[in-house]
Amino acid sequence: MRPCLTYKYQGPGSLVQLIITNNYFTILPSKSIISTTHKHHFHIMSPFTKLAQRTLPRNSSIMEHKWIKLNKAPQTETPAEPTPLVAVIGVGFVGTGLVDSFSSMYDILGFDISEERVKELSIEFEARPNVSFTCNESDLKLATHFLVSVPTLLLPDKSINLSYLKSALDKVKRWAQPGSTVVIESSVAIGLTRELLGPIAKSQRLFAGMSPERIDPGRTEPPMRTIAKVVSGLDDVVPGSLDAIVRLYGRVFDTIVPVSKPEVAEMTKLYENCQRMMCIAYVNEMADACLGLGIDPYEVCNAAATKPFGYLPFQPSLGVGGHCIPVNPYYLLSNGDYPLLRAAAETMNERPAAIAERIVDGFFGKEKEGRRDSGVEIRKRVLVVGMGFKAGQSHLVNSSGLQLARELNKFELDVNFADSLVSQSAVPDITRLADEDWTKEKLEEFDLIVVSFKQVGMDFGLLETLSEDVSVQMFCQ
Questions:
Q1: What domains can be seen in the chain, in order of their start residue?
Q2: Percentage of residues in the chain with pLDDT exceeding 90?
Q3: Could you say which of 233, 267, 347, 453 is the most buried, measured as most Cβ atoms within 10 Å of its Cβ?
Q4: CA distances (Å), 66 to each of 60, 222, 256, 318, in order?
Q5: Cα–Cα distance for residue pair 369/342, rounded to 1 Å
Q6: Distance CA 405, CA 421 (A)
């Protein structure tokens, strides 16, 4: 610290106030306070210090004051705190969102095992000099904070695939320095943060906890920083964990919601998404019942949505897709009994196959054989529109449209798909309708068109112009 001249304020009372100007620095503070302005450092010196008391003249008043110059303070040295470097391990949907948000306040190192992903993001974030990406795990030794956002998907038997999470935590164990902060952002079953991260935090002396992600791929509003962030810490394993995590996240998010322990944070995330699974299953059950009653289920949903209380609006669909909703119920089911949730999850998982059966029955009856005229088999042509897991997305994770197309392809049908964002190479087993063939003439060559969702960049008004010979089934509004 530079030498400074200290000043004492003389007025009513005997407390000493230190005045800071552009030319002087404060002496050592009595305690630290959290910085709200400095980009990197969590602590700055308090602008108030304890100096010797001085008895003031009885005739001093608040309006009569003067500055008294004191002795020149001796030169001292204080160690500088390291500049925080936040490592985001796994830069997929969730990780990229974290990089984007945290880079507004911190230096960022994004780590991924995919060289292609690292190259892609290096270009995307090239305008931000405080962001870098790497496939070299030894670079993680420079980090002071670690956010783990790797996939936690399901195996074929619906058990949780923990290989990515365990691998990420192994890297943290190898490279994190004592005093670092580690937070799991990935969705996990209840108790997994404590089971997997707890021993590492204890042995390595790391502040540790769990903060479940709340990212909706493709959504830009509301901004991520405005979405309340639930945070938790393993304070019973490493005291001070929650405080360290609150300080880390508090500079990025507008609202921080600390909870008592990681198990609460884990359940919060799963409860949120499993509630959606239950509601989606119910609205689709209602929609299927409407088919036999001559009722438009979308009209029902729109009418019900006019109720301003006690109703959550959901729309009928082909199924559920993506990384979260189809998967999260099985995290809860892995170590708990939830009969209603199990029934909803299994029903929605099987829904595309059930709809495929219904389509085939409508074509051929229960025999499921191709119609033959004069001994020549005539194959029905079906176009499935929407292969991504939702509108605006090209990713195929748990895609209901893809599952339907593949189920239909098992029968004697000529199945094609259309999606402006999904290439032929992404779905090599189903023929893709070329973008230039999305015309009235080409669409009328199909017997049935099934719309999973309205993908961006496609003119769905054409479907209203088709002849009555083409059946169109809409699983969206």
A1: 1-79 (no CATH), 85-260 (3.40.50.720), 278-345 (no CATH), 351-474 (3.40.50.720)
A2: 73
A3: 233
A4: 10, 52, 44, 78
A5: 34
A6: 16
Cα–Cα distance list, 37 to 1, 40, 90, 250, 294 (Å): 20, 9, 29, 12, 62
Residue-wise pLDDT for 59-112, tens only, equals 333 333 333 333 444 444 444 566 899 999 999 989 999 999 999 999 999 999
pLDDT above 60 for 43: no
- DSSP H helices, 176-261, are 192, 198-204, 241-250
Sign of torsion over alpha carbons 147, 148, 151, 153: negative
**222-237 residue pLDDT tens:** 889 999 999 999 999 9
CB of 213 within 8 A of CB of 187? yes
CA distance 48 to 26: 8
Could you give the 3-state DSSP secondary structure of residue 278?
helix
pLDDT (0 to 100) of residue 366: 55
* Residue type at position 343: A
**Where does residue 211 rank: exposed (0-12), middle (13-18), buried (19+ CB within 10 A)?**
buried
Residue at 255: amino acid letter: T
Q: Which two tokens stand for residue 370?
A: 């191709």
Residue 35: per-residue pLDDT? 40
